[in-house]
Specification:
alpha/beta; 4-stranded parallel β-sheet; about 260 residues; 10 helices
Length: about 260
C-alpha cells in the first residue's frame, strides 16, 4: 500500500492568496511527514492564466494521474474549499471514477471542505467568532465576505450568518454572488445604526476578490459602498487558510479521510 495526499485548492494568481496555501501545505507536511503531499488547482480558469504566465499547475485529475504512474495505490484528496459546492462534488465524482477504473487506485477518499454538515456550521462559527472578536470595538460590526454560489451549497453561507447572529448579533456573513449581497447588508447596517464595520474575507486566500471586490477603489467594492452609506471601514486581508484554528478543522477532515482509507 502506497499512500499520497492531494490538496485541492480553487487556486489564485494573486500573491497575497499564496500565504494561505503555503501555510496549510506546511501544516499538512508537518502532520504527515512520511506521506507525499501534492497541490492541485480545481479552477480551469486559474490554471489557464497561470500557464500563460509560465507557472503551470496541475489539475486534480493530472495530479492523480501522476501519482498513479508512480505506483501510488491510496490517495486522500483534501478539499480546501470553504463549502461543499460544485467543485467539491466534482472531486467526489472524480474519486469514484478513479476507483472504478481497472487501472485506477485501490482507494481514493475525499476530505470535506471547511464547513460540512450542521455540526460543521457550529464548529466553524465558533472558530470564526474568535477571529471576529480581534480588535473589534464595542459598537462595531464585523462583516465577512463569502464568494457565494448558485449551487445548493450556498445555504451554508446563510447557515453561518444565522449561527453568527445567535452568538453575536454584530457579526455578519455576506456573499458576492448570492444573497445576502451588499445591498441587503447596507440596509441592515443602516437600520441598526452601524457606524464602523470590520471587513474580512471568508475566502481560502485573500486574493483578487478581497483586494478588488471587498476593499478596492471601484464604485462597486464593498468598502466604497459602505463608506458612501456613512459607515467607516477597517479591513483585515487574511484568508481562512492563514488562521490556525480554521486550518485545524481542515486537518481534522484530512485525518478522517485517511482513517476511512486505512480501514478498507
Amino acid at each position: 500500500m502506497s499512500t499520497a495526499i492531494v490538496l485541492a485548492a480553487f487556486g489564485s494568481r494573486h500573491k497575497n492568496a499564496m500565504a494561505s496555501l503555503t501555510h496549510i501545505t506546511e501544516r499538512v507536511r508537518a502532520a504527515y511527514p512520511d506521506i507525499p503531499v501534492r497541490v492541485a488547482y480545481t479552477s480551469k480558469t486559474i490554471r489557464g492564466h497561470m500557464k500563460k504566465a509560465g507557472e503551470a499547475v496541475d489539475s486534480v485529475s493530472a495530479a492523480l494521474d501522476k501519482l498513479l504512474s508512480e505506483g501510488v495505490t491510496h490517495v486522500a484528496v483534501q478539499s480546501l474549499h470553504l463549502i461543499p459546492g460544485t467543485e467539491f462534488h466534482e472531486l467526489l465524482g472524480l474519486a469514484n471514477e478513479l476507483m472504478l477504473r481497472e487501472d485506477g487506485f485501490s482507494r481514493v477518499e475525499v476530505g470535506f471542505p471547511l464547513v460540512a454538515g450542521e455540526a460543521g456550521v457550529e464548529q466553524v462559527a465558533d472558530a470564526v467568532l474568535a477571529i471576529a472578536e480581534q480588535g473589534k470595538g464595542e459598537n462595531d460590526a464585523v462583516l465577512f465576505m463569502g464568494h457565494g454560489t448558485k449551487h445548493d451549497g450556498n445555504v451554508y453561507y446563510e447557515a453561518l450568518h444565522r449561527a453568527f447572529q445567535q452568538r453575536d448579533p454584530s457579526v455578519h456573513m455576506g456573499a458576492m454572488e448570492a444573497e445576502p449581497g451588499i445591498d441587503a447588508i447596507i440596509e441592515r447596517f443602516t437600520r441598526d445604526g452601524v457606524k464602523k464595520a470590520h471587513l474580512l474575507p471568508f475566502l481560502f486566500g485573500a486574493g483578487w476578490h478581497a483586494a478588488r471586490d471587498m476593499v478596492g477603489d471601484s464604485e462597486t467594492s464593498w468598502k466604497t459602498r459602505l463608506e458612501k452609506a456613512g459607515i467607516q471601514c477597517e479591513a483585515v486581508l487574511k484568508g481562512a487558510g492563514e488562521y490556525d484554528h480554521l486550518v485545524d478543522i481542515w486537518l481534522s477532515h484530512l485525518h478522517d479521510a485517511l482513517a476511512r482509507m486505512n480501514r478498507c
